[in-house]
Structures are given as structure tokens and as C-alpha cells.
Backbone:
């Protein structure tokens, strides 16, 4: 963690209260194409992806497991979960998260890139839509150039995979 010197002088200081801020979603083809969750809720999805090097932390997996506990992934949705490291995978197993994912119908894989880079496992076909907790959604990033990728937190991805459309986990 980087910290400023105690005697640092600033030109301006900005404080933002985000306690009541709605979850934000990065919409297709640009990480800066951000909208409130309520504006894209209901958008059909074919795939959900949680993990890889970004947002495959234990806290992300805990968020997903909480949403998926006792529920099922929608019949028309693939949900892929890839913990960020071997250590995180093991802790997630120890805490029962992996069992929760499998019981819900998700596919869990070993740590790696998975569909994030569009190279294997969950590569999107033409016209498919994914919601992902990864960090990139540029055109063709996860497969066909005519597919769409929305970026969200793990809880939103899990809730969306359950419903079959982009969903707020508070609505489960």
C-alpha cells in the first residue's frame, strides 16, 4: 500500500460518499462504458465468468458462493469459476465454496486465464453475451467479435447466472 508523507500538502481534497451508490456495470466494448446496474438489468446472458487473475480472490468467491448457495444456474447459462491461485482454490475448497459452485451447476477450473483472453474454455460464439468479473471487455476479447461482454462484481455475475439475465443480487 502506498501512502503519502504525513507532511504532504495538497491543492484540493475530494471526499465522496459511495454508501448509497448503485452497483456499476461496464457495458460492451469499453471498460469506460459504465452504467448503473438498473439500466442494464434484464439483459439476456449466455455465460457468466468469475475469476481469473482479476476478481478471483477469496472475497470474490465468497460473494459468489453467498449468492449461489441453495440455488441453481439457469439452464441456458454457462457459469465458469476460476480461482486466481492454487492457494485461493484450496481455501475455497476448505470453506465449502467449491462444493456450493458445483451444486449450483457451475463449472470450476484450475487457476488460469480461461475465457478472459478468448483462447479457450468459455470462448464466446457470435451473438453470445457474457457477464464477467474480469478486467477487459474489448470487442472480441472473449471470443467472436460479434459477442458482448459486460463487466461486474462476482455477486452480480452469480445472480445473473441464476436468473439468465443481468440481475442485482439483492433481488434473489
Residues:
Amino acid at each position: 500500500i502506498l501512502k503519502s508523507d504525513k507532511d504532504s500538502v495538497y491543492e484540493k481534497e475530494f471526499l465522496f460518499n459511495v454508501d448509497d451508490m448503485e452497483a456499476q456495470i461496464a457495458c460492451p466494448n469499453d471498460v469506460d462504458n459504465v452504467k448503473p446496474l438498473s439500466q442494464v438489468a434484464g439483459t439476456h446472458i449466455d455465460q457468466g465468468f468469475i475469476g481469473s487473475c482479476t476478481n478471483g480472490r477469496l472475497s470474490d468467491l465468497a460473494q459468489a458462493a453467498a449468492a449461489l448457495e441453495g440455488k441453481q444456474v439457469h439452464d441456458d447459462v454457462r457459469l465458469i469459476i476460476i480461482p486466481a491461485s492454487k492457494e485461493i482454490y484450496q481455501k475455497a475448497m476448505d470453506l465449502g465454496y467449491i462444493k456450493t459452485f458445483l451444486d449450483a451447476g457451475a463449472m470450476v477450473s484450475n487457476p488460469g486465464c480461461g475465457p478472459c483472453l478468448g483462447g479457450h474454455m468459455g470462448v464466446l460464439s457470435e451473438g453470445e453475451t457474457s457477464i464477467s468479473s474480469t478486467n477487459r471487455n474489448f470487442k472480441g476479447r472473449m471470443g467472436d467479435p460479434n459477442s458482448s461482454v459486460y463487466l461486474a462484481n462476482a455477486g452480480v455475475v452469480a445472480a445473473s447466472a441464476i436468473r439468465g439475465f443481468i440481475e442485482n443480487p439483492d433481488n434473489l
The radius of gyration is 17 Å.
